[in-house]
Amino acid sequence: MPSRITTSLLSFFSPLPVLAYSCFRYMLGYLPKEDRVFLMDNARNVVSFRVLLSVLQFQTAVVRGDMDSANALVPALPESEHSHVARFLESQGLKDEALSLTKDPDQKFDLALELGRLDIATELLAEVRREGSGRRVKG
């Protein structure tokens, strides 16, 4: 039998907006090998979303304020998720931690400016200039 699930739980570990979950009423289960959670709405439509357990554990530790546990989990985070996790850290007000984790140069530049880390911002601008690819830093 499916268990009742709340929208707030789903919005916690997914990048989709909270409104996207208002139609889901039941959590059918989670397949760790596939990193997928399966949900069902009132019309019995089943949908699945990718949910990495390592990211969920990291975010849970951050929300609890347990930064020692969160820092211990960083090596388990796939590198492909670092920028996503950095955006989460930024939303939690942990901008220094987000700056050290992000792989996105635009996000890194913005964070560096917000934190007054002009050395990092200048280095990023120099990299763009060296590449000469015509890439522009958003502004």
Total strands = 4
What gyration radius follows from the Cα positions, in whole Å?
Answer: 18 Å
User: What proportion of the residues is helical, as a percent range?
Assistant: 40-55%
* Ends apart, CA distance between termini: 51 Å
Silhouette: elongated
Number of domains: 2
Contiguous runs where pLDDT drops below 50 for at least 5 residues: 1-20
What is the CATH architecture term of the largest domain? Alpha Horseshoe
- Major beta sheet, strand line-up: 1-2-3-4
> For this structure, what is the CATH class of the largest domain?
Mainly Alpha
Q: Could you tell me the strand content as a percent range?
A: 15-25%
**In the CATH scheme, what's the topology name of the largest domain?**
Serine Threonine Protein Phosphatase 5, Tetratricopeptide repeat
Q: Which series of helices and strands comes N to C?
A: EHEEEHHHHHH
Number of helices: 7
Can you tell me about this structure?
The structure is a single chain. With 139 residues, the protein is an alpha+beta fold. It starts with a strand and ends in an 8-residue tail after the last helix. Helix 4 packs antiparallel against helix 5 (95-101), helix 5 packs antiparallel against helix 6 (105-114) and helix 6 (105-114) packs antiparallel against helix 7. It has a 4-stranded antiparallel β-sheet with strand order 1-2-3-4, with no helix packed on it. It has helices spanning 7-12, 53-64, 67-73, 82-91, 95-101, 105-114, 118-131, and strands at 3-4, 24-31, 36-41, 46-50. The radius of gyration is 18 Å and the shape is elongated. The protein is 47% helix and 15% strand. The chain folds into 2 domains: 3-50, no CATH class; 53-131, Serine Threonine Protein Phosphatase 5, Tetratricopeptide repeat (Alpha Horseshoe), CATH 1.25.40. The model is unreliable at 1-20 (pLDDT under 50).
